[in-house]
Amino acid sequence: MKQSLNKISPFNHRTDMPASLFVIKKILAFWVCYIAGLFIAEGLVILLHFALGKNMLVGDVFEAGTITLITYYGYIIIAGAALLYWKVIEANAATTIVLAFAVTLIVVMSRHSSQGLFVPPENTLAFECAGITEGGKFPVENTGRGKDISPEFVIKNLSPHAKTFIITLEDLSHPMNRFTHWVIWNIPAADKIPKAIPAGKTLSSPAGAVQGIGYGLHRYAGPKPPKGKSHRYCFRIYALDCKMNLKPFSTKSKVLNKAYGHIIQQGEICGYFE
Fold first, then answer.
1. What's this model's pTM, rounded to 2 decimal places?
2. Which terminus of the chain has fewer CB atoms gathered within 10 Å of its CB, N or C?
3. At a CB cut-off of 8 Å and minimum separation 6, what does 125 contact?
4. pLDDT tens digit sequence for 46-63
């Protein structure tokens, strides 16, 4: 056992082992690169926030555009960790390049698979959200400082092929990027989605709709930033060509991954609350 563990250690360049152990060794090497790069990148982000007077503990973070830019720098750091590892341990230029590319690609795909799936511009879903305009302020009744009820949505260009909707509400200013406040799916496709959707796992109205796990546990949970802070929030509506079979304990990530390949329209409205 000790010899086998020594062989598959990602911190040596031994190759005298069965193919199965060699595969395990490379998988461990991948995770070493990923975790090391992730810790370095996240540590630098935290240090950068505090160095510039931002307190992440109370939700005081950079704007969404800056966070996105920092995220891509993080990918470079993760790729750099892979390059350094393979240069020091493997000393194999070709393998170095392949691993760095693979690590970065997998990280990018995993990070973005649940953060808004790409839909061509011609398939953009146009909708209105009662009381909320793009870039405007959320009405108090739709927030955790008021009645905390979901707004009415009016769909403008619904595809005849749409069967159901997914709706998500995300906090774009939260330290956990795109923090999920609300996720609901299997809403029957229609020109209007009613306001004040009640709490519950599987609903009778809208018929068959299912609410998952977020800041709101099987319910709508509106904006509620730390007092004195302004946060940016975004409603996203996805029109699907099918109904999804998912448990109510599913997260936004699981819901959107399941929806991949079935989204025919997608739109968003973003606003702020303080």
1. 0.61
2. N
3. 155, 157, 158, 237, 238, 239, 265, 266, 267
4. 777 677 776 655 445 555
